[in-house]
Each structure stands twice: as C-alpha cells, then as structure tokens.
Amino acid sequence: MPQDLLPEALTRDLALANRILYDQGVVDAMGHASVRHPEHPELFLLSANRAPGLVRRRDIYCYRQDGSPVDTEGPRPYLERFIHAEIYRSRPDVQAVVHSHSPNVIPFACTHTALRPLFHMSGFLGSGSAHFDIRDEAGDTDMLIRNSTLGRSLASALGAQSCVLMRGHGSTVVGDSLPQAIYRAIYTEINARLQLAASGLGEAQFLNQTEARLASEANDTQIPRSWALWVQRLGATDVDE
Ligand code: MN
User: Does residue 240 fall inside a structural domain?
Assistant: First the structure.
C-alpha cells in the first residue's frame, strides 16, 4: 500500500496524538500510539522509529498483525510494534492503542497493585488494571515486547480490560477511538499519581463498578472537548511537513 493511500485525516490525527502524549508527559523519547486502519481492519497505522514528540504524517506506516510493515522499503519500525499487532488481533473492538513508560504507573506495575478509579475521570479503569509480568512468560529478558509470542501473552493478560500494567516496564491502554485511547493514557498516569498520594493518607474509597461505568460513559461524550484543548496547546507544529 503506497503511503499516499493512508487515510489522510486519520494519519494527521495520529501524528497529533503522538505530540499530545509528549506534551502531556505520558511519553518521552519512547512510547507509541497506533490506530486501526478504518478500511482495512487487519492493518494498523503506527509511526516508524521516532520520538513521539517529533512524529510527522510522513513517518506513519501501515503494519500487519504479524508486525510486518506493508511497505518493505520503509524506515526502521519500532521494536515493540508487536504490542499493537497482537492486541488488534485479539480485540476486534479496539481501534487504538497507546504504550508508554509513564513514571507514576511503574510502582503499581512492579508491586502488582491494581490501578483503580480514584475519581470520575478514570472511570475506564473499572474494577482495576490488568497485570503482565514478562518473566512469567519468557524468563530473564530485556523487558521489551520484541516478537509476536510476547505480544500475544501481553494481549492475553489485557483480556477484556482497558489498561494493562507491565512489570519493570510501563503500561498499555486501548480505546474504541484514537482520542479515547489518548484520554485513557493521560488519565492512567494521573490516576496513578493520585492513587500514590492517597495511599499515604489512609484507605482510599475508589469508585465502585457502577460508578466507574457511569462516569466512563459520561466522560466519553466529552472527549472532543479534551482533544480540542490538547491540540490547541501544541500550537504550530510541523506534522504536515
Ligand atoms: Mn516499552
């Protein structure tokens, strides 16, 4: 598939989504966001190997669910593209995926402590985060999801949930749209920060499952408002260059 057949508006939104994740402190030079191809659901769009804060439309390529790039002449892909590939394969409902190493999530990942919705903005956390330990699957590794087998294990740990924490590494969130996945990545990090703060004060009362569901449904109607603000904060960008 030539690059000029990529859906233009969605490719631009994905480039902006990468910039937003950097601007909001969810990613640094590492981490990535992807979106399922709207006309070819067996494919997904992901930047080639580049810091998210620098991603432009022309850095975005199509990948298959085995992690192979459709354009074999393209630049070097991300090592961890198998995270995205295997989640799209196992979760037909998922339209977008964000993988990050956002810092406040790490203490929860390494203690297998569930992230739970501390306030309405993180209602999508429902009854708690899923957890994945690469050592259980592959023994001692460099912690990276470098192949389809590890990607499948991670997707299996995610199950039907929206957020999986990865011991010694970071987290991955999914959404039914690109803005929803970005929203969830941002508020996973914020909820982790707040949950750490609350843990020093006493026993936290989390949203129960009904509250979490109702809050999540209400928030989803407001995501365009957040998206507009996130894009505005970026100011002028070179995403189209
Ligand atoms: Mn990673």
Answer: no
Q: What is the pLDDT of residues 5-36, one digit of tens each?
A: 689 999 999 999 999 999 999 999 999 999 99
Q: Is residue 241 part of a domain?
A: no
Which residue range forms the structural domain that includes residue 50?
Answer: 3-234
Q: Print burial letters for 145-172: b (CB count within 10 Å at least 16), e (below 16).
A: bbebebbbbbbebbeebbbbbbbebbbb
* CA 188 to ligand 1 centroid distance, Å: 16
Domain-embedded: residue 127: yes
Distance 233 CA to ligand 1 centre (A): 26
Q: What is the pLDDT of residues 63-120, one digit of tens each?
A: 999 999 999 999 999 999 999 999 999 999 999 999 999 999 999 999 999 999 999 9
- How many Å lie between the centroid of ligand 1 and the Cα of residue 93? 23
Do the domain assignments include residue 81? yes
Question: For the chain, how many structural domains are there in total?
Answer: 1
- Domain CATH for 137: 3.40.225.10
Residues recognised as catalytic:
80
What's the CA-to-centroid distance between 99 and ligand 1, angstroms?
7
State the amino acid at position 123 in one-letter form.
G
pTM of the model: 0.97
